[in-house]
Design brief:
By secondary structure, the protein is α/β, with parallel strands linked by helices. It has helices spanning about 30-45, 75-85, 105-120, 125, 150-160, 175-185, and strands at about 5-10, 15, 55-60, 65-70, 90-100, 135-140, 140-150, 170, 175. The N and C termini lie close together (about 10 Å).
């Protein structure tokens, strides 16, 4: 039975299966889907306009790439789709990336939270990474933290740092390295 693949772009982590092949359908090659997911993730991570204020996940099943997430500008949605479509082996793209509304309040909140998290000495080693792993999504004053951190302490600290501003709510969807490794093992 084929298990689809999902990757978190910020961390090139393979996550839970997207779905399974229907009975009687030709079985896809999971290794090929893994390679496609890896290549799409690498392409998005190499996109210079992809920042910690954007969040994209990649799902692949039988060569069909599903893009989910939120970005700050419409051109990013289109560029990410073009980059994914250019990857060898991609048969089709389902682009479900939404564009965050324009708001100076949200922009200010994003910047303040990013400075608070990445300016904290506990996160300096995250901040110097080519693609910092904690993403800060702000939509109409509501904050969602996504990505992968090393430990539960880092997860709690990041949420605490984000909570000190005038956000309407702060939700942490951060995962630890251990949780990601368990999800990867479960999907095999």
């Amino acid at each position: 039975m084929n298990k689809g693949l999902r990757a978190l772009v910020a961390c090139v982590a393979i996550m839970a299966p997207v779905g399974t092949a229907q009975a009687g359908a030709a079985q896809a090659n999971p290794h090929k889907d893994f390679r496609i997911a890896h290549d799409v993730v690498a392409s998005v991570n190499n996109y210079t306009q992809f920042t910690v204020f954007d969040d994209v996940s990649v799902g692949v099943e039988d060569g069909v790439v599903t893009l989910n997430g939120r970005v700050t500008m419409p051109y990013k949605r289109n560029e990410i789709e073009k980059r994914a479509a250019a990857v060898d082996g991609v048969r089709e793209i389902s682009n479900k990336i939404s564009v965050l509304p324009v708001s100076s309040f949200d922009d200010d909140l994003r910047n303040r939270i990013a400075r608070s998290i990445y300016g904290n000495s506990n996160f300096w080693d995250y901040a110097i990474m080519r693609n910092p792993p904690i993403h800060i999504i702000v939509e109409r004053g509501h904050v969602t933290l996504t990505g992968v951190v090393r430990s539960n302490v880092d997860r709690m600290l990041a949420r605490s740092l984000a909570n000190q501003f005038s956000a309407f709510s702060v939700t942490s969807k951060l995962k630890t390295d251990a949780e990601m490794n368990n999800e990867r093992a479960d999907s095999d």
